[in-house]
Each structure stands twice: as C-alpha cells, then as structure tokens.
Design brief:
21% strand, 4-stranded antiparallel beta sheet, 455 residues, 32% helix, 17 strands, 8-stranded mixed beta sheet, elongated, alpha+beta, 13 helices
Length: 455
C-alpha cells in the first residue's frame, strides 16, 4: 500500500524547501494550488525586477569613432515568460569631461548615476541567440570619455560601462601594427626581416622586425607599458629610414619590437579610459627582468612585491612570456644600444633614463653619452640643460638588465622637453599633429645616431 502523506506534513516540507529556495513571499496554499510553473516563476521574478539588474556581462568598446554597447539577459529573467521585458531596450550615456587620464581610474565611474544621464536610445533590438543585445552609438566625439548603461524596459540597468573614443591614428591596434609591418615587408623585401619571437599572456604573437642589411644594430622596443609610447613612433622611424636612408641601413640595422604588450595596448586602443601599465597577468614587464630580483623597489606608492600594485614584478624572474621574448631576441641580435619607449599616450621625447645602478660606472656612463649625444643632436631640441641621462631605472627593469647582463647602453625614452607637449600627452590628449611632431623628431634623432655609429 502507498503511504498516505498528510497535507500538514507536505506543508512542512514545502515550507522548508521554500526557505532554502528563497520563496518566502509565497504561501503554501499558493504553491499547492499553482498548476502553471511558468506563471509561478513569472510572479516570483517579476516582483524582483526593480531590485535586480535584468542584464549581465555588460561590455563597451570603441572602433572607428563608434561606440559598441552589449549585454546578456540576466539568467534570472532568461525564461520565455519574460520575453516581454526585453521588447524595448534603453541605452543611457553621459559625457565625462573632467575625467583625467593618469589621475582617475575605474573608481571615477562608480559614483555616476544613470538617472542623471541622457537616454540616447529606447526601442526594440533583435538579440543574438535570444540572449545578447547590442547597440551602436555613432553620435560620439573623438577624444571624449563616456559612461554607458544598458537596460530593459524596466528595472535597474547594467553599468556603469566607461569608454574613451580614441583616435585610431594615434592609438594603433594590434592589427594595425601587423598591417604596417606587412607593408614594409612587401615594399622592401631586401631590407626587412620579420620574426615571431614569442607570445603574450593572451597568446597574441610578439613580432620583431629588422630593417637593414648590417649585422651591427640598435634596438627599439615599444609599449612595454601599455599606456605609453611605442608602435606609432617606431614604425614611422623604420618607414622613413627605408624611404630616405637605405645607405645608413647598409651600415647599421635597426631591430624593433614595436609592441611588447599588445594585449593591454589593444584594451586602451579600444577605449579603456584609464592608464594601464601591466600585462594581462597584472605584472609590470619593466620590473620582471632577472636583475637584482631580491631587491624590492618602491615607486609611485607601490611596492614591486605587492601583487595588487601597479609595479608588481611577478612571481619569479622573467615569469612573463613577453619578458622572455624580449630577452631572447636581444641576446640573439646583440644590439649596440637599446631604446625602450615610455612616457604616455603614444608620445616619448628626448629624456633618457638609465639604470640607477650604473651611475658610478664611469666607463658605462661615458658609453651611454656617446650614444645619447648624437640622438639629441639629431632631434635638435636645443635644450642643453635637459640633455642629461637620468640614472633612475630600478631592479627588474629593461635598462638595468641591459646594463648588468649585456653591458650595452639601455634607456627608457621618456618625457618630451616641451612643457606644453608634456601636458598634452600626459592627459591622453595626443592628437595627430602632436604625434606627427614626435614621429619626425624620433626619426631625426635615430638618423643622426645611425650616422654616428656607422661612421
């Protein structure tokens, strides 16, 4: 015989399950009498629409002066019974003119309220796979910072989703750098060698390019820090040398790694508004080289042994694939000097930083100045008081590794000498005019240096 279950006992069981499942708002009689599970589910979750976000995994990026916003249905509201909730999509945005690159970070956007933003779209959007909703905003200004929210017809929106509309001619993407390299390879096959020297943390290829026919060479390395200078300057220098000075490249070649940290460089190129320094593993590549590893450095309010810090050196020396790719290539090519481009927002000027450990090594210091002086002379900046190597670079940096492991002049290329230029690019206000100025200055500087080395 089947054992009879009393309504009282059944009610107790349901009450216990109700507590576990978070169904406290329903009575036992409602649960027992409901024959439509979807109706019950809808009644339960509709009560929560105003308390829960109806979207998840919001994403925003810019490309070709357009902003793309997307998000997925929240799992809680993914059942067909809630389709009416997504018949209309709302998009809010607000411009953030006081956001300051290098000063403000993600916390700036957390304080923003969509209720004070502009409703820029409200209407139907056809989802991909009944789950992902996307919107394209073409009414944006190059150089402006925005914050977006995406919402269904009711309920709290997903956001804030911050983005900066960066000029693609000032911030080059991974694909654009590859296209520039391919162009030079095809245009100058007798002078160009391209080599894949490794992979990034996210398995992008790290590409090296050699321009010239001589074994003697200098090395140019870009975007070790994602928010700083690199490919936009280096590729211009190589192109102009090939156009105008093949004679020099027969005497002294230029080897280059235009973008050593393309994972995070792309994140900035596609609109991340705040400064990014580290690689995708959150390691500062310029503290990861195997030199004086036991020494903890403290700069900018961070410690190199702190995984949360922006100067974190990594778990062990040369732990990062980007670091080992650079090291192996430099050891293979044996350059006479090494320049690693830094400062901010695609611009680097005439300031040269060397390893602080070398400051009392007179022979090495003299060798560094032998390289630096023709470089400055070619740039013709007429700033004799500023034409001084600052021996500042720390343990684990590329210049310190270049000094201690290879004995070659190795520099971080930093600040512009011009205060107005400094202020413009430091706030990520670099435009094509400013970029072109420093592309030409760097070309002049390296033309002079190659002439000096080759003579």
């Amino acid at each position: 015989m089947k054992k009879e279950v009393s309504i009282t006992n059944l009610s107790k069981r349901i009450l216990n399950r109700r507590k576990f499942l978070g169904l406290a708002s329903f009575t036992v009689s409602e649960i027992l009498s409901s024959l439509d599970k979807n109706k019950l589910y809808a009644k339960k979750t509709n009560n929560l629409i105003e308390e829960y976000r109806t979207f998840r995994d919001g994403h925003v990026f810019c490309k070709n002066n357009q902003v793309f916003v997307s998000a997925f249905k929240a799992m809680r509201f993914s059942k067909p019974v809630h389709n009416d909730l997504y018949k209309e999509i709302r998009i809010f945005h607000t411009e953030c003119p006081d956001f300051t690159f290098g000063t403000d970070y993600e916390e700036y956007f957390r304080a923003l309220d969509y209720k004070k933003a502009d409703l820029v779209f409200q209407g139907p959007v056809e989802p991909a796979l009944q789950s992902k909703f996307s919107f394209t905003d073409e009414n944006v200004k190059t150089g402006a910072v925005y914050c977006y929210w995406i919402a269904s017809s009711t309920g709290e929106p997903e956001g804030p989703l911050p983005v900066k509309v960066r000029d693609p001619d000032v911030w080059w993407t991974f694909e654009k750098v590859k296209a520039k390299i391919d162009f030079l390879k095809n245009a100058y096959p007798d002078y160009i060698q391209v080599q894949q020297i490794g992979f990034t943390a996210n398995r992008r290829s790290i590409t090296a390019i050699k321009a010239g026919q001589a074994e003697k060479c200098i090395a140019l390395i870009g975007a070790v820090h994602a928010g700083e200078a690199g490919p936009e300057l280096i590729m211009y220098v190589l192109k102009k040398l090939l156009e105008k000075h093949k004679d020099l490249l027969k005497k002294v070649s230029v080897i280059a790694i235009p973008s050593a940290n393309p994972d995070m460089r792309d994140k900035l190129a596609f609109g991340n508004p705040w400064y990014i320094r580290r690689n995708a593993n959150l390691v500062d590549i310029n503290r990861n080289f195997p030199t004086d590893w036991e020494k903890t450095e403290q700069n900018y309010g961070y410690s190199t042994d702190d995984p949360q810090g922006y100067t974190y050196r990594g778990q062990y020396p040369a732990s990062e694939s980007e670091t080992t790719a650079i090291m192996n290539y430099i050891k293979q090519t044996k350059p006479a000097a090494l320049f690693s481009f830094h400062f901010l927002a695609s611009i680097a000027g005439g300031t040269l930083l060397g390893s602080k450990d070398a400051v009392n090594d007179k022979g090495y210091v003299n060798l560094c100045y032998k390289i630096a002086r023709p470089y400055w002379k070619g740039m013709n900046l007429n700033e004799p008081k500023k034409e001084e190597i600052v021996f500042y670079c720390t343990a684990g940096s590329l210049p310190t590794w270049g000094y201690k492991s290879l004995g070659i002049p190795a520099f971080d290329v930093e600040d512009p000498f011009d205060p107005a230029d400094w202020a413009q690019c430091a706030k990520d206000h670099t435009d094509t005019s400013l970029l072109q100025k420093y592309q030409q200055l760097q070309f002049q500087g390296f033309t002079s240096l190659l002439t000096s080395i080759g003579s």
